[in-house]
Amino acid sequence: MHNLNIINKKTKRSRVLAYLVLPTITLLSACVEIQSSSHSTEKNNTPDTHKEEPGQAKNVILFIGDGMGISTITATRIFDGQSKDMEGEENSLAFDNFENVALIKTYNTNAQVPDSAGTATAIMSGYKTNIGTINVRPGQKYEGCGSIPAIKTLTDRSHSAGKSVGIVTTTRITHATPAAMFAHADNRNWESDNEVPREAKDAGCKSIAQQMVESEAEIIMGGGTSKFSENQLNTLKANYTFAANKADMKNFKDGKLRALFSKSHMSFEADRDPAEQPSLAEMTETAIKNLKSNQEGYVLMVEAGRIDHAHHGTNAFRALTDAQALNEAVKVAIEMASEETLIMVTADHSHVFTMAGYPVRGNPILGLVKSIDQTTGLPSDSYEKALDGKPYTTLGYHNGPHLRVASADNRPLTNEDVQDRNYRQQTAIPMNTETHAGEDVALFGHGPGSENIRGVMEQNKISDVIDLALGLN
Predict the structure, then answer these.
(1) Which of 236, 256, 430, 455 is at 20 to 30 A from 445, Cα to Cα?
(2) Is residue 229 among the annotated active site residues?
(3) 59-352+435-470 CATH pick, 3.30.470.10, 3.30.1490.20, 3.40.50.150, 3.40.720.10
(4) Per-residue pLDDT tens over the stretch 100-114
(5) What's the predicted TM-score (pTM) here?
């Protein structure tokens, strides 16, 4: 009884202390939160207080589905399942099974709805920045030009730790996302020498193409020969194994590789000539096979960049087939990578891409909407109709070039129309091109260090996850 009284007295004192201390802790937490939000353009290598001590990774493979928002992932899952004669909804993509998932806030420092330059900078270099800029912080004009100090790219930080670096994309290699691995540019459009303004050149700024030529990354693959001068291409061919087609890439054995498979962006997966251009999965396989020879490890960034381009054209078929190609590349990484590899799958931003209309389970994801008959509980015999008396598709876009027009002479859509690979889904607001969206995207993680992928995260914290897992400074 005596001991119990002592315990009760200690418990009461603990409660009193808790009442006194908790308000102070709450206030301090609020201050920390405010400070963190107001300094989001600054790199911070200190893990958030809710994070665990990460597992140690030797390698990192970062997959970026450009424009692959949540609705795109859901539609791709169904599309992929239906291509395997399933109803679709029950299907799982390879990264659906990753054990750690977070939501990522994608805004740029000056934009509510972001672009790929600002978001790629956040993901790879750890800094929130302005829309349209690559590895240049707000207010730091010409950062990385001439003698002006630059923030360290993911390639820089990886090489400092003795790791090899691979960059793979289906876009031009000088496009915003891959460029964030190795370049600094006040404007993402400075892809070629003739696109850099005179003032910037006088300050020592170089085109993204020239910075790619000078990059120390071991493997770089993508499209975009049109952005390189003849001299730049000759330099690449003289100093590296150079691949212009799939056969060249397959013949690459070791050393450093530069592969440019097209004049501009590589083909959409649905249009790719498999004899000429490798798939994203094949490029990923080549990269991993060669990078893993480095006993210190490697960092590989793989971008399915044309998901974004198909969405801008409101062509869901090509957006989904390119997302499906990303999924195949993830399967390759899972199969080939060692247990010491952190694999992450995310998007830089979303698109105004929607799924709607109460379609029946298993309804073709690209098809017209058939709903459930509320009387019988079975699928309706006819397609659902909008107020204009015409059927509509499950998939659509908030804005873009293919406006749905309510008029008597506008014939109703047929299922054959909407399931054609060239069909462009209808939009609500007329614009020359569909736009990005601003909602959170997903980040999926597997392997050592992925335990820090959880909750709702600022996009630049993805860089922290990589650095912590690899022990980078």
Answers:
(1) 256
(2) no
(3) 3.40.720.10
(4) 999 999 999 999 999
(5) 0.89
